[in-house]
């Protein structure tokens, strides 16, 4: 009877753990939101900041931003492997310290172009350190059934920060000194908070630690490829919609709609997390990419109503794809969760780079032809045609192996 009572008590404790978040996980979700508030209070205005401080044209500014972003994403597998070695808590603490150092460098380098560029690369390095460790910490001791809820909560917290950050930045847009003083204080507070995080325990180090030269070993190929495709298509919405809507809808409408997109992700992903975790990958891809296609078609009209409708279905499609890609990567990888998230960040970077190179060239062609609505229809067609092609190639490769 004593054994049965003990087992039932253990079952109840396990059930509670399965339903709720630990204190450390809840604290980290707050930290993830605040980190993105600090980052995205600055990120939307970086082009203007760099142009003013460097005294160069937008073409040169674009090169600096592109290289910095590529470095951040390309280094993610290495920073994830680094986190695997030093521990997730230590990596998170180091990242917040580097974020704070970047904010201080922005603050003191107001009249120094070299310090401004250094601050940009420090911020990108901090992001490369923080992101894989953040997700790895959330799921390091979770079961496969708990992962959808935890990942969706982590993504929701991050997207809430992305939504609020530009609003905070707008308050200080004409006073960058106050902006960077505020972000310095924020990151100092976050460093203290991360110092008191509970160490992640032994579950995070169970997997064999590979040498740095093998950071891509154990890669889950299909989720990696689908993540590249997802961000290649998604970033065309994120990068080119503002240019397309200029002169078609008021700037304030565009800003509110884009904030609504981020809030939509915050709302949608936790609601669909359990279902997304259970559904098959092809079905999730069909839902996600079809929603993205509908969104792109809605943008083609260039009207405020179409913009709102497109953003609503885009938030559903990307919520499904972002979560399912990471879940499939975790299920298919032979590496630790932290390294797997680093590999996924690399896929995000590759997709973003393709969006800039290929998407930018295609956008330019339609712009010169004065048929910009056709650009969005072309992207919509790719949303429907490319995913089945990726699945077909993956199946052929698996058969050969």
TrEMBL record:
Gene3D superfamilies: MFS general substrate transporter like domains. GO terms for cellular component: plasma membrane. Coiled coil: none annotated. InterPro entries: Bacilysin_exporter_BacE_put, MFS, MFS_dom, MFS_trans_sf, MFS_Transporters. Its main location: membrane. One of its GO terms (molecular function) is transmembrane transporter activity. The keyword Chloroplast does not apply. Keywords: Cell membrane, Membrane, Transmembrane, Transmembrane helix, Transport. It is a multi-pass membrane protein. Residues 24-398 form the Major facilitator superfamily (MFS) profile domain. This is Putative MFS family arabinose efflux permease. It comes from Saccharothrix tamanrassetensis.
């Amino acid at each position: 009877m004593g054994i049965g009572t003990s087992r039932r008590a253990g079952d109840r404790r396990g059930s509670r753990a399965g339903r709720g978040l630990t204190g450390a996980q809840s604290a980290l979700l707050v930290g993830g939101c605040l980190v993105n508030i600090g980052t995205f209070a600055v990120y939307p205005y970086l082009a203007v900041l760099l142009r003013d401080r460097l005294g160069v044209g937008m073409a040169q500014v674009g090169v600096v931003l592109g290289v910095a972003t590529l470095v951040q994403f390309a280094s993610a597998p290495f920073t994830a492997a680094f986190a695997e070695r030093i521990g997730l808590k230590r990596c998170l603490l180091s990242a917040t310290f580097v974020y704070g150092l970047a904010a201080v460098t922005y603050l003191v380098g107001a009249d120094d172009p070299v310090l401004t560029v250094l601050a940009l690369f420090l911020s990108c390095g901090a992001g490369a350190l923080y992101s894989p460790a953040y997700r790895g910490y959330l799921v390091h001791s979770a079961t496969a059934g708990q992962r959808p809820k935890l990942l969706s909560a982590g993504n929701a917290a991050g997207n809430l920060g992305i939504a609020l950050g530009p609003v905070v930045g707008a308050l200080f847009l004409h006073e960058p000194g106050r902006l960077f003083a505020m972000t310095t204080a924020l990151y100092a507070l976050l460093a203290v908070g991360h110092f008191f995080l509970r160490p992640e325990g032994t579950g995070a180090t169970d997997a064999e630690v590979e040498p740095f030269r093998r950071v891509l070993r154990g890669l889950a190929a299909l989720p990696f490829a689908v993540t590249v495709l997802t961000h290649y298509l998604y970033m065309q919405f994120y990068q080119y919609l503002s240019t397309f809507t200029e002169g078609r809808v008021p700037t304030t409408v565009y800003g509110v709609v884009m904030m609504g997109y981020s809030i939509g992700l915050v709302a949608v992903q936790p609601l669909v997390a359990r279902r997304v975790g259970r559904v098959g990958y092809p079905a999730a891809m069909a839902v996600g990419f079809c929603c993205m296609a509908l969104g792109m078609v809605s943008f083609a009209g260039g009207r405020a109503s179409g913009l709102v409708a497109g953003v609503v279905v885009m938030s559903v499609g990307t919520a499904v794809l972002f979560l399912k890609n990471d879940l499939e990567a975790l299920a298919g990888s032979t590496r630790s969760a932290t390294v797997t998230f680093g590999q996924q960040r690399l896929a995000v970077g590759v997709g973003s780079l393709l969006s800039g190179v290929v998407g930018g060239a295609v956008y330019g062609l339609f712009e010169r032809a004065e048929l910009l609505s056709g650009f969005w229809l072309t992207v919509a067609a790719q949303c429907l045609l490319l995913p089945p092609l990726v699945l077909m190639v993956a199946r052929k490769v698996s058969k050969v192996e």
